[in-house]
Write a structure and sequence with these properties.
Blueprint: E1 6-14, H1 18-29, E2 38-41, H2 83-97, E3 108-113, E4 124-129, E5 132-137, H3 138-141, E6 147-151, E7 154-163, E8 185-188, E9 202-206, H4 210-219, E10 225-230, E11 236-237, H5 243-258, H6 266-270, E12 272-273, H7 276-284, E13 289-291, E14 295-297, E15 300-302, E16 308-310, E17 313-316, E18 341-342, E19 345-346, E20 349-354, H8 363-382
Parallel strand pairs: 1-2, 1-7, 7-20, 8-17, 9-10, 9-17, 10-13, 11-12
Antiparallel strand pairs: 3-6, 4-5, 6-7, 14-15, 15-16, 18-19, 19-20
Length: about 400
């Protein structure tokens, strides 16, 4: 679908993963219509968010904490099918069921002020709205002032924006001395397509998260040797993970966001769940962890104490960073490198909401953030002091 000129809409949603679809669902619930009042833009080739890019051997039974989207459960899935197929199909059905009319593939290149000073440089006023007494910029309340959303299918002028771009497009590569001289392969876990590419290789896996552990356990049976290294000792979580523990984990992430620091993921503060596969990996020695090496050499890795490991492949399972470069013209970042927020809205521009960011970077967190953003935007744009519909608690896991 191609548009010429600038098309005016009330809200642009950027991204159609879990957070973006939840936001679109709730925008419909509060009275907005897709392609009339709001538009959902997604640069991925098909439905599924980041799940569509997961490696084929990550079957659905290995996924922990995938929470259903609001209004429609995921039932009857074959646990042996790749999670990319199961969840991709589920997202596709969801988009069709609720008529969300996602535009794809569409790249958003920049979001900027349509003209004049950014709203956060103007005086602020306080107004009591549907989400409580919040301090909002004057610019956010001026109907004529819009955000210009520049995209590959044309530009949109929006009164509000919900950003749900996640992290998949920004894999984090740590800088380690000697990377340029190492003679083997170096790749990020985002490029991992299964264990066969590592057959008979000596592999060093860097990272202490879920992807690192899952990929290491797959690679070990076919590799000549594996070594697991992490910056900090991994924390394994025994027993159930309940609501109280979930709230405590989210609070830690929220505190960093309040301070204007880059968020840590919710998963990073919950620890690794002690599954049967992890238990076996620890007993067999595959999950015997070493601290991060000091440097790479042409043939392997060297530690400060003189230890060396020969390697053919370095696999960096070192996580991702929020994909927010297109928001740079709005100058939302604080000196600490993060974006300060109140709920889902950014403090520097009340028209911009981030969902799936920081404390909402989990499947259930994304659902709740999508609803909160939709209700907040409706209150701001209509100056409606009443909630659009009753708050409902969503059950589920915080793990993504």
């Amino acid at each position: 679908m191609n548009y010429t000129g600038v098309r005016e809409v009330e809200v642009v949603v950027v991204g159609a993963g879990q957070a973006g679809l939840a936001a679109a669902f709730h925008l419909r619930r509060v009275g907005y219509e897709p392609d009339r009042d709001f538009v959902v833009l997604d640069h991925s080739p098909r439905p599924g968010g980041a799940w569509q890019f997961r490696w084929p051997t990550l079957t659905y039974d290995k996924v922990h904490g995938m929470h259903a989207l609001p209004g429609m459960g995921l039932t009857g899935a074959d646990p042996r099918r790749p999670s990319s197929e199961v969840i991709g199909g589920y997202f596709d059905d969801y988009e069709r069921t609720f008529g969300l009319r996602v535009h794809r593939p569409v790249s958003v290149t920049a979001v900027r002020e349509e003209g004049g000073l950014p709203p956060w440089k103007k005086p602020v006023v306080a107004r009591a709205g549907s989400v409580g007494a919040l301090t909002e910029s004057v610019g956010a309340l001026e109907g004529e002032r819009r955000l210009l959303v520049e995209t590959s299918e044309g530009d949109y002028a929006a009164r509000a924006l919900i950003n749900a771009t996640g992290t998949w497009d920004r894999p984090f590569w740590p800088r380690i001395p000697g990377q340029e001289v190492f003679g083997g392969r170096q790749l990020h876990s985002a490029q991992y397509r299964g264990p066969e590419a590592f057959r008979a290789a000596r592999v060093v896996v860097v990272g202490g998260g879920t992807s690192a552990v899952q990929q290491l356990l797959e690679i070990a049976p076919v590799a000549a040797a594996t070594t697991w290294v992490t910056r900090r000792p991994p924390v394994f979580r025994e027993g159930p993970f309940g609501e109280e523990q979930g709230r405590a984990a989210v609070a830690l992430v929220e505190e960093r966001v309040r301070q204007g620091l880059p968020p840590r993921s919710v998963v990073s503060v919950t620890g690794l769940p002690m599954t049967e596969a992890i238990r076996r990996g620890r007993e067999s020695g595959v999950l015997d962890r070493l601290p991060l090496f000091e440097r790479l050499t042409p043939t392997g890795a060297v530690w400060g104490d003189g230890r060396t490991v020969e390697a053919d492949v370095i696999l960096y399972a070192t996580g991702f960073r929020p994909a927010l470069d297109h928001l740079a013209p709005l100058r939302l970042r604080e000196p600490g490198g993060g974006i300060r927020m109140e709920g889902t809205r950014t403090l520097r521009d009340a028209r911009v909401h981030l969902v799936g960011y920081g404390p909402s970077a989990s499947t259930i967190g994304a659902n709740r953030a999508g609803r909160a953003a939709a209700v907040s935007i409706r209150g701001m744009l209509t100056e409606d002091s009443q909630p659009a519909y009753e708050e409902t608690e969503l059950a589920g896991s915080l793990a993504s």
